[in-house]
Design a protein that fits this description.
The complex is a heterodimer of chains A (about 625) and B (about 290). With about 625 residues, chain A is α/β, with parallel strands linked by helices. Chain A has 17 helices and 31 strands. The chains are: A alpha/beta (about 625), B mainly alpha (about 290).
């Protein structure tokens, strides 16, 4: 292995930017590290080069552990996005720098510099200053400079990010040629998926500091295992359907699946992906062997050279949740993106507003259906109730469950959880129950953390659990069956959307009904009331297509009292939307939320965090 | 009678962002008048008065032993102060732009402090520290070390008042340039010392020289602070500005102005050096250093 990374982790100001990152690159491979900005990919690269120290983990270059070595002893070639050429030196001096600091004789240096400049297509420009060259030429100099000392590995940090499209393509080609010729293991960081496809032998996708998936570009595009990769690489239609014997059912139609992934029989929900080019558009009378999803209308179409891109709107199917493309809140429909080559477009010309039948050529099922829970299993009475509740909830929602064993042994936990759980992992709690949550949350990325707390005394626990990550929180306070009637107390507008949307994701599997409640002061002006009414209607339109029976209620008066009155009227799960900053950090449940936590008896309580920007 | 129809005049487009010509002329004239009144006129007067009794008198005034001693002392002070502030400026700018540490903002503010303190107060501060009744004065006196009324004292106060000049030049420059080049040098195998000499120093060379030029000018011209600590001993602790003042107070106007021309010439040389550096830096691309 040319590069081996083992469990790298890096914190900035206590926030993890890279967690548990491991990757291996064989000799001669070009691997692209792809991820949205802020996903920690440049940090990984700098750790390999020795420009940053990792907090945990080891770096091996050609089998040698270099974790403790300074950058100059690691012998990696590094290319920066800013080129980072030495501005006062000529091109030749730049390229020869690594040799000069090593004391290589002048004649030999000149020979090597000329050879390198020729290789990157800059022969004869050695006497120029960097600023007399174009951006593309400067980056060629940077590449030649990084190769001068014959490094064992080459690291490139978004090297073509500042260049225009045509020059990028050119540079990509020369980089690929040079890299093949030298057979040097190369790690290339970019956020541009087109670049990743064009360059990579393999692509490693990163998100939130973690490695999500790694594989050949084709494999990742056609058969991603995770929702993130499915939606990040290329345009995607991603739906949650119902698993059947032969394949998957979406609304009224059964689709065969070419490849079921590693599906387990217990699983009944399945995320399916079809790419825009997998969509076939048929005229109203046209017959075909392909399974037809339904008849929709064309919402927009645009021309993009070799393809026509369309966005279609289909009526909602009961029980089918759309993940991508995102549907506007309260739209009561779902959207499909399609693309087709010109000869198909000529056969069936379409304009916005036209009806069209939507068929699907190929479907791919993702490895897991989406929800991930993290359970804090404690031996207290409420803790044991939480374990049972979580088991039941995970079974019904087909969620993956990670359990932190805090004083409870695995056998007891398994017994309380019950059978028929999809994916179940256990981890011991080191250094206290609550203290173990942040790390487990970092590693598993849960949607929801579940914990038990005695009635009326859950606030501090709730605060520290919410502070440890990005997740929502379910507090179980007594022996309760799964809820049948859920009360969602939602704020109006953007923050409220996440309250309703997450409740829908969870509750749709339980067959429970939902009441969405919004409380306004009695003195509210008519405008505010009208806005709240619109929000409530949109909430119903969002929930009902998921098969969730929805009631809405606009309360006028004191928020706390209205909520308590509604809860007393036969609801058995309270959902509280709390606006919290994204990411881990200090949380204070003061005001109404805090008082409600202590005044709501032993009913389970779901705290949904809504972020400043909607996720 | 028929009248020739003249073709329509082409529309006259005015740059919408440019002020009318009248405004421009008034502003330029104002600036020039100001400059003439406050700079050119006094400068002219200094030279005219210095030369009013002819070249021989001028030469006598500037080559008189006390004047020469003042020149020597001034140059000595500059030779001590400029390198000291060069080192301090580099170290401070490096620390501020490369490291994160507690009290960084305080350091940046404190670097500027000598500019906001009156030079006379600065001089008094040193008297309080090193004077006969001062904090360290008696202790130093016992050991025969003399700070006040001698070269060390003058150099110390001058260093104090000129302290911000180099650092102030370097900090924004180094902030703008970032540390990518340094990081590149490290990945290419340079030792930290090689990185500093071959990459960091050349990068800020022009800014550094500019700071040195300013520092030098101020070090030679400083009056207030030096006046407090020097003791005005002719031939011993008089710098050029102090010497000018003494001559003036003794009604030797021609001699005073003749010596003043020396200071003025120093200032003009500095100005020229500054302009040259500016021009050089622009020619080499931004604030870039020249070829090694």
């Amino acid at each position: 292995m040319s590069i081996r990374l083992e469990g790298l982790a890096k914190l900035y100001d206590g926030h993890p930017v890279v967690s548990d990152f491991s990757l291996e690159l064989p000799a001669g491979e070009l691997c692209v590290l792809l991820g949205p900005s802020g996903s920690g990919k440049s940090t990984v690269l700098r750790i390999i080069a020795g420009l940053l120290a990792a907090d945990r983990g080891r770096v091996f270059l050609h089998g040698r552990d270099v974790s403790e070595l300074p950058p100059q002893a690691r012998g990696a070639g590094f290319v920066f996005q800013s080129y980072a050429l030495f501005r006062g030196m000529t091109v030749a001096e730049n390229v020869g720098f690594a040799l000069a600091v090593r004391g290589v004789a002048r004649a030999e240096r000149r020979h090597r510099v000329e050879e390198l400049l020729e290789r990157v297509g800059l022969a004869g420009l050695g006497k120029r200053l960097p600023r007399q060259l174009s951006g593309g030429q400067q980056q060629r100099v940077a590449l030649a400079r990084a190769l001068a000392h014959r490094p064992e590995v080459l690291l490139l940090d978004e090297p073509f990010g500042a260049l225009d499209a045509r020059i990028r393509t050119e540079l990509r080609r020369s980089l690929r040629e040079i890299q093949r010729e030298l057979g040097i293991a190369t790690l290339f960081v970019t956020h541009d998926q087109e670049e990743a496809f064009a360059l990579g032998d393999r692509i490693a996708v990163m998100a939130l500091g973690r490695l999500v998936e790694v594989g050949p570009p084709r494999e990742l595009y056609l058969r991603p295992q995770t929702e993130f990769v499915a939606t990040f690489l290329g345009a995607a239609n991603l739906l949650v359907g119902e698993a059947t014997e032969q394949g998957v059912r979406i609304g009224p139609v059964d689709f065969p699946l070419e490849h079921r992934g590693e599906s387990e029989p217990a699983r009944r929900r399945v995320q399916v992906l079809f790419r825009p080019e997998d969509v076939a558009l048929l005229g109203e009378q046209e017959a075909g062997a392909l399974p037809v999803l339904g008849t929709g209308t064309v919402e927009s179409c645009s021309f993009a050279g070799a393809f026509e891109h369309l966005r279609l709107r289909l009526p909602p199917f009961v029980g089918v949740r759309a993940i991508a493309p995102p549907v506007p809140f309260g739209a009561g429909a779902f959207a499909v993106v399609a693309s087709r080559p010109p000869h198909e477009a000529r056969k069936l010309p379409l304009a916005p507003g036209d009806p069209v039948r939507v068929a699907v050529r190929r479907l791919h099922a993702l490895a897991h259906p989406g929800l991930q829970f993290l359970l804090l299993a404690e031996p207290s009475a409420e803790g044991l109730e939480a374990v049972a509740f979580a088991g039941e909830l995970a079974r019904r929602t087909h969620a993956r469950l990670a359990v932190i064993l805090a004083g409870l042994d695995e056998a007891t936990a398994r017994e309380r959880l019950g059978r028929g759980l999809g994916e179940l992992t256990f981890r011991p709690a080191r250094g206290g129950a609550v203290a173990a949550v942040p790390e487990a949350a970092r590693l598993t990325g849960p949607d929801l953390v579940i914990a038990g707390a005695p009635a009326g005394r859950g606030t501090p626990l709730a605060e520290s659990l919410l502070a440890s990550g990005d997740h929502h929180l379910l507090v179980v306070r007594g022996p309760r069956p799964l809820p049948a009637r859920v009360l969602v107390c939602a704020a109006v507008g953007e923050p409220g959307k996440e309250d309703v949307a997450f409740t829908g994701r969870l509750v749709r599997h339980l067959g429970a009904g939902v009441t969405v409640l919004t409380v306004l002061p009695e003195s509210s002006p008519a405008v505010a009331r009208a806005q709240a009414e619109r929000f409530l209607q949109a909430s119903a339109r969002t929930l009902e297509p998921l098969g969730v029976a929805t009631e809405t209620r606009l309360g006028l008066g004191a928020t706390e009292e209205e909520i308590l009155a509604a809860l007393a009227g036969g609801h058995d799960l309270l959902v509280l939307g709390v606006p919290l900053p994204k990411g881990a950090g200090e949380v204070a449940l003061d005001g109404i939320a805090g008082r409600l936590v202590s005044r709501t008896g032993d009913a389970p309580l779901l705290v949904v965090r809504s972020f400043e920007e909607s996720p | 009678m028929s009248r020739e129809l003249s073709p329509p005049a082409p529309p006259r487009w005015r740059n919408p962002r440019a002020e009318p010509a009248a405004v421009r002329w008034v502003l330029v004239a104002l600036a020039l008048a100001f400059l003439a009144f406050f700079l050119l006129l006094p400068l002219g007067v200094v030279f005219a008065r210095g030369l009013e009794k002819g070249l021989a008198a001028y030469r006598a005034a500037v080559s008189e032993p006390y004047a020469l001693a003042a020149v020597r002392l001034t140059l000595q002070v500059a030779a001590l102060v400029v390198p000291a502030n060069l080192l301090f400026g580099l170290a401070a700018a490096w620390a501020v732009t490369r490291f994160e540490f507690r009290g960084k903002n305080l350091l940046v503010t404190l670097i500027d402090a000598p500019f906001s303190v009156s030079p006379v107060i600065a001089g008094l501060l040193f008297v309080l520290l090193f004077g006969a009744q001062g904090l360290f004065g008696p202790w130093l006196m016992e050991r025969g070390v003399r700070i006040l009324f001698s070269l060390p004292g003058i150099a110390l106060v001058t260093a104090f008042v000129t302290m911000p000049l180099v650092a102030r030049q370097l900090i924004p420059l180094m902030q703008a340039q970032g540390s990518d080049e340094e990081q590149a040098a490290l990945t290419l195998g340079a030792t930290p010392w090689q990185m500093f000499l071959r990459v960091s120093l050349p990068k800020v060379r022009w800014g550094l020289l500019y700071g040195v030029v300013l520092c030098n000018a101020r070090a030679m011209g400083e009056f207030g602070a030096v006046s407090v600590v020097s003791g005005h001993i002719r031939g011993k602790t008089n710098t050029l500005p102090l010497h000018v003042e003494i001559l003036y107070n003794e009604y030797q106007f021609q001699a005073a102005f003749a010596v003043a021309t020396l200071l003025a010439l120093l200032g003009l040389t500095t100005l020229a050096a500054q302009a040259l550096l500016d021009w050089q830096a622009r020619r080499r691309g931004g604030a870039g250093p020249g070829r090694a």
